[in-house]
Amino acid sequence: MFTGCALCAAIGLVAEDVSAQAPSGLKRTITSRIDGPTQGYETLQVIVDVEPNFLIDWHTHPGTEAGYVLEGVGEFRVKDAETRQIKPGTSWVTPAETPHTLKNGPQPSKLFVTFTVQKGKPLATPVPAPT
Questions:
Q1: Which of 27, 39, 54, 66 has the maximum number of C-beta atoms within 10 A of its C-beta?
Q2: 75 contact partners, CB below 8 Å, separation of at least 6
């Protein structure tokens, strides 16, 4: 199930500390960080490198996640939607507080992800798998 969501790549981390503690299997490189688009939010643009067969478990974000696959393949799942096969050129947008997960394929993947999230909140919060 492919994070975005990289998605989704920062489970349990505060947005201010997104690059400090990447979970095993992920490497995040912040390419841009700005305040806004409104007070109390910030926008981060992040390159996410995902190791082969890595699973980003179910989680949510305190804002919108928009991603684009640069390299690799995987499976991306969003609550109440069908599993999507992703590959280079695939893009997605995950609304705030929407559970999703990513299973990377057998090769490394590279994602470009934009997070527009509330400042000071964890960038991602683990949640139980939907039933």
A1: 54
A2: 1, 2, 83, 84, 85, 86, 102, 103, 105
Chain Cα centroid distance, residue 90: 14
- The total domain count for the chain is 1
pLDDT digits (tens, 9 = 90+) for 97-129: 999 999 999 999 999 999 999 999 988 899 999
- Give, in degrees to the nearest 5, the angle at Cα 65 between 64 and 67: 150
* 99 within 8 A of 11, measured Cβ to Cβ: no
pLDDT of residue 22: 60
For residue 65, list its beta bridge partners. 94, 115
Phi-psi region of 115 (alpha: psi -120 to 50; beta: other; left: phi over 0): beta
Token readout for 67 is 């991603």
CA distance 51 to 29: 15
Can you tell me whether residue 32 is helix, strand or coil? strand
Range of the structural domain that residue 99 is part of: 15-126
